[in-house]
Amino acid sequence: MAVGVFDSGLGGLTVHQAIANRMPDLPLVYLGDNAHTPYGVRTHDDIFDLTCKGVERLWQEGCDLVILACNTASAAALKRMQETWLPQNKRVLGVFVPLIEALTERHWGDNSPPREVAIKHVALFATPATVASRAFQRELAFRAIGVDVEAQPCGGVVDAIEDGDEMLAEALVRSHVEALKRRMPHPEAAILGCTHYPLMEKAFREALGSGVAVYSQAGLVAESLEDYLRRRPEFLGSGTQSRFLTTGDPERVTSKATQFLRHPIRFEAA
């Protein structure tokens, strides 16, 4: 009954932790493609190929349903995977849908025409590849009209987090928020469009100032997954063991992940 969680590196651990807290009896297999992180500066073809390889590895672990706990992979690869690559007996889900459900206050199964929503000015902080894909804006347009989205590519933040350099990550967050606010001085909401960014949520909130609603994905994804599995239990896979896998050096990734989550965690070679 295992579910897979895939990320380019360590950021997806925020999603994994939220799912594990919400559904403690659900076996989860996490795969971090640390050998190829960050994805945010790669081409869409490269991201597609790497994501497919990662998902196939999770299938080997008995995970018929895989969560792409990576906004870059969700933006650059998911639609193509679902349309051209995915077998009928498997499912791959991204992290945008729960976020847009929350932002627009409507369930994804609601297929009525787009309508106006309360929030009109949205700041999107994401990797360069996610911003370039315009996937967030495209999905939002299916559900809402009249929303102004200003996107800020946050180069360097993922690298700093993966390297454990919190001071650099905080400085980069402040710089990126300042750059966005020069174009959109008064956002009503901010989207942390990368699963690494919740670790810097305090820095984002301080830089944005009070009065800006900050949407972070981990809890929303966990809630959405629980609902999905309730409706589609056939996609609970055959796997029974929870594991943490990496394409990188397991000892190094274990050390970084323990620092990342502030509790012990052990990675194995994928």
UniProtKB/TrEMBL annotation:
<protein>
    <recommendedName>
        <fullName>Glutamate racemase</fullName>
        <ecNumber>5.1.1.3</ecNumber>
    </recommendedName>
</protein>
<comment type="similarity">
    <text>Belongs to the aspartate/glutamate racemases family.</text>
</comment>
<dbReference type="GO" id="GO:0071555">
    <property type="term" value="P:cell wall organization"/>
</dbReference>
<dbReference type="InterPro" id="IPR018187">
    <property type="entry name" value="Asp/Glu_racemase_AS_1"/>
</dbReference>
<dbReference type="InterPro" id="IPR015942">
    <property type="entry name" value="Asp/Glu/hydantoin_racemase"/>
</dbReference>
<dbReference type="GO" id="GO:0008881">
    <property type="term" value="F:glutamate racemase activity"/>
</dbReference>
<feature type="active site" description="Proton donor/acceptor">
    <location>
        <position position="70"/>
    </location>
</feature>
<dbReference type="GO" id="GO:0008360">
    <property type="term" value="P:regulation of cell shape"/>
</dbReference>
<feature type="binding site">
    <location>
        <begin position="195"/>
        <end position="196"/>
    </location>
    <ligand>
        <name>substrate</name>
    </ligand>
</feature>
<feature type="binding site">
    <location>
        <begin position="71"/>
        <end position="72"/>
    </location>
    <ligand>
        <name>substrate</name>
    </ligand>
</feature>
<dbReference type="InterPro" id="IPR001920">
    <property type="entry name" value="Asp/Glu_race"/>
</dbReference>
<keyword id="KW-0573">Peptidoglycan synthesis</keyword>
<feature type="active site" description="Proton donor/acceptor">
    <location>
        <position position="194"/>
    </location>
</feature>
<keyword id="KW-0133">Cell shape</keyword>
<keyword id="KW-0413">Isomerase</keyword>
<feature type="binding site">
    <location>
        <begin position="7"/>
        <end position="8"/>
    </location>
    <ligand>
        <name>substrate</name>
    </ligand>
</feature>
<dbReference type="GO" id="GO:0009252">
    <property type="term" value="P:peptidoglycan biosynthetic process"/>
</dbReference>
<dbReference type="Pfam" id="PF01177">
    <property type="entry name" value="Asp_Glu_race"/>
</dbReference>
<comment type="pathway">
    <text>Cell wall biogenesis; peptidoglycan biosynthesis.</text>
</comment>
<comment type="function">
    <text>Provides the (R)-glutamate required for cell wall biosynthesis.</text>
</comment>
<keyword id="KW-0961">Cell wall biogenesis/degradation</keyword>
<feature type="binding site">
    <location>
        <begin position="39"/>
        <end position="40"/>
    </location>
    <ligand>
        <name>substrate</name>
    </ligand>
</feature>
<dbReference type="InterPro" id="IPR004391">
    <property type="entry name" value="Glu_race"/>
</dbReference>
